[in-house]
Amino acid sequence: MARIQNENRVLLHICCGPCSITVVQGLRAEGFEVTGLFYNPNIHPAAEYLRRREALVEVAARLDFPVIFLDKEYDPAVYLRETAFRENNRCFHCYRLRLERTLKVARRGGFAHFSSTLLYSKMQKHDVIRDLGHDLAGDSKTAFLYRDFRPTWNQGIELSKSFGIYRQDYCGCIFSEFERRRRDLRQLG
C-alpha cells in the first residue's frame, strides 16, 4: 500500500557516498525530507559495489538520513543486457534503468519527488538525465526533481576526503573502468 504523499519527501537515487554529501545537504537546506535509494546494477565488479555501498552507509550515518538498499536486486547482468550492442549510448540506458527503478520505488512509497545524485557529477550527461527524469515522471503524482548540483562538486570532493570515505575513480561500469585504464594498458604493450 502506498504511503500518503507529502510534498517535501524526495527519494534520491544515490550512485555512491561521495556524490550524496552536498546533494543531501542542499536538498535539506531547501526543506526536503531526503531518503536515499541505492540501486546500481551497473557497478562492476561486485567488490566495487560493496565498497561504494559501505561508503554510502558511512555518509548516511554521518548526515543522518535513511537509505533503501536494493542489494537483492544487484545483478550486473541486468545492466549488461540493457547496454549490449549499445555501448555508444550505454549511459542513456544505464540512467533509464536506475531512474525507472527509483520512480517505481518512489511511487510505491508515496514520495512527491524523485531525483538522482547523477546530477552532481561533472562526468555524467546532465541534460540526458534531466530530460529522461522528466519524461519518465510525465504527469504523474511523483515528479522528477531537477537540480543542477554540479556547482557543489569541489565542496563535495573536499568533504568526502575529510570524511575519509572511499572515493572511486570511474563511474562504475565495466566500460568506464576499461576506458579509465586504457592508457595504463597501452603502456604495457
Automatic annotation (TrEMBL):
InterPro entries: QueH, Rossmann-like_a/b/a_fold. It catalyses: epoxyqueuosine(34) in tRNA + AH2 = queuosine(34) in tRNA + A + H2O. It is an enzyme of class 1 (oxidoreductase). Pathway: tRNA modification; tRNA-queuosine biosynthesis. Disulfide bonds join C171-C173. Its EC number is 1.17.99.6. The keyword Iron-sulfur applies. Catalyzes the conversion of epoxyqueuosine (oQ) to queuosine (Q), which is a hypermodified base found in the wobble positions of tRNA(Asp), tRNA(Asn), tRNA(His) and tRNA(Tyr). Belongs to the QueH family. This is Epoxyqueuosine reductase QueH. It comes from Desulfolutivibrio sulfodismutans. The gene is queH.
